[in-house]
Write a structure and sequence with these properties.
Elements (H helix, E strand, L loop, with lengths): L9 E3 L5 E3 L12 H13 L13 E5 L14 E5 H6 L12
Length: 100
């Protein structure tokens, strides 16, 4: 049984509700309530603007360390980017030093 105090397994949104960190294989599934809540939380936390350019259009919740390289679906590993800035990240080296 998971330890409910482990911050790697759970996160708390801005209303105080605790959510499990989504464990999703393959493409992200917005029908999973905890994933949708995480996406909305990250965008709200970052002020509803892209961290790179400040745009408020076509926002996505992006993983700082890619999922492919072991990045978690946890708010600490996520940032709000616009679609354009997120697209420019393709092929760049992420935090673990591995090409994305």
């Amino acid at each position: 049984m998971a330890d409910v105090r482990d911050p790697r397994l759970f996160w708390t949104d801005d209303t105080g509700k605790r959510w499990p960190v989504p464990e999703i294989r393959g493409r992200l599934k917005f029908r999973i309530p905890s994933h949708l809540a995480l996406r909305e939380f990250v965008i709200r936390r970052d002020g509803g603007a892209c961290r790179e350019c400040g745009s408020r259009e076509r926002l996505v919740a992006d993983h700082v360390v890619s999922r492919r390289n072991g990045g978690a679906h946890h708010p600490a590993n996520m940032q709000c980017l616009c679609w354009s800035c997120n697209s420019r990240k393709v092929g760049l080296v992420d935090t673990k030093g591995v090409r994305a």
